[in-house]
Amino acid sequence: MSRSGPDEEILEPALAICDAHHHLWKTSAVPGWKPYQLAELLSDTSSGHNVTSTVFVECLAGFRETGAEALRPVGETEFVERTIEPHRGKPDVAAAIVGFADLSLGARVREVLEAHLAASPRFRGIRHATNNDPKRQVPRSHHRAPPGLLGDAAFRDGIRQLVALDLSFDAWVYHPQLAEVVDLARAFPDLTIVLDHLGGVIGVGSYAGRRDEIFAEWRRRMDALAECENVHVKLGGLHMELSGFGWEARREAPDSGEIAEQTRRYHLHAIERFGVRRCMFESNFPVDSSACSYRVLWNAFKRIASGFTPQEKAALFHDTAAEVYRISPVRA
Q1: Mean pLDDT, residues 284-312 taken together
Q2: Hey, CA dihedral for 218, 222, 225, 230, is it positive or negative?
Q3: Residue 153 is part of a domain; what is its CATH number?
Q4: What is the pLDDT of residues 246-284, one digit of tens each?
Q5: Which residues contact 25 (CB under 8 A, 6 or more apart)?
Q6: Is 8 a member of any domain?
Q7: What is the mean pLDDT of the segment spanning 205-234?
Q8: Average pLDDT of the chain?
């Protein structure tokens, strides 16, 4: 489903990038997606931008097929370790790993988290996707989370285990759920929360054709979330069908100028409210490749960030992700 797009010249080719969010899979949990493994990722990261490291985020890949049900997600961390083992040098692929554990297990999730930590020294945290549209216009998360899970007592007992082990929590919600993330962040001020995909802006179904109205609603919710200093934001993910720009349905893929023009206000508002030390650009590949190529995507991000200082760009494209996910220098 990846789009090749226009053959653009690389903007600011020396700018160091930590790709804060990508996936790897032999078989996707989403029908229609081809394998996206090390070779495909390296083809994208070597397309011209200076990608020095990446962050792998869970996608139901490589789960164990036997053994205790709760421990099966540890197979994904093991899968990533096997995948990156042959690779040395630039970029440092999966320099940080965000896996999955069912936090609704409560205190019992401790065993799962410790197994992830034993499986990889790069393991940094959990994403338990809870996106659930109250209007049922788009599918709920791949973890089939029920409504209101972020406030569930057992789930929060699981969150306490993350805090105890100094692990982060990636939050994948839709924009109408952002108040739930605010409540979670206030309840656990010592928890590092990373909001995926700019808060999951919906632009399809009954949300279609209301872009300015939806933007205003999203902005109000993001403003409230920005007051929670333990929350960071991944800048990206707007290129999925979910957001309603329709790029995946076009015969010709958009260029970086068009992408930047249509998504700029979301990125710049998040940066304005959260600051560069709490924002990080992400590719969300291969999912966002249905809209454009890796080369074009990062050019669009660079266009959006063109007005920032070199120090601010360093934070947005590399340093914030490296700090949040505690990424060490590239392996020798």
Answers
A1: 97
A2: positive
A3: 3.20.20.140
A4: 999 998 999 999 999 999 999 999 999 999 999 999 999
A5: 33, 35, 36, 37, 59, 60, 61, 62
A6: no
A7: 97
A8: 95
In a domain, 270, yes or no: yes
- 332 has pLDDT over 60: no
* Residue 258 near residue 5, CB atoms below 8 Å: no
Helix (H, G, I), strand (E, B) or coil at 98: strand
Over residues 233-251, the mean pLDDT reads 95
* Residue 200, CA distances (Å) to 3, 76, 146, 152, 278 in order: 22, 24, 17, 21, 17
Let me know: does 191 contact 185? Beta carbons within 8 Å: yes
Number of domains, the chain: 1
- Tell me what percent of the chain is helix, strand and coil, each rounded to the nearest 5: 45, 15, 40
Backbone angles phi, psi at 75, to 5 degrees: -60, -25
Which two tokens mark 205?
A: 């179904």
Share of the chain above pLDDT 90, in %: 89
Band of pLDDT at residue 4, cut at 50, 70 and 90: low
Query: Which of 183, 171, 177 has the alpha carbon at shortest distance from 126?
Result: 171
| 61 in a structural domain | yes
Dist. CA 228–CA 15, nearest whole Å: 29
Provide the residue range defining the domain that includes 218.
Answer: 16-324
In a domain, 9, yes or no: no
CB 168 within 8 A of CB 122: no
Query: Can you tell me the distance from the alpha carbon of 217 to that of 205, in angstroms, rounded to the nearest whole number?
Result: 17
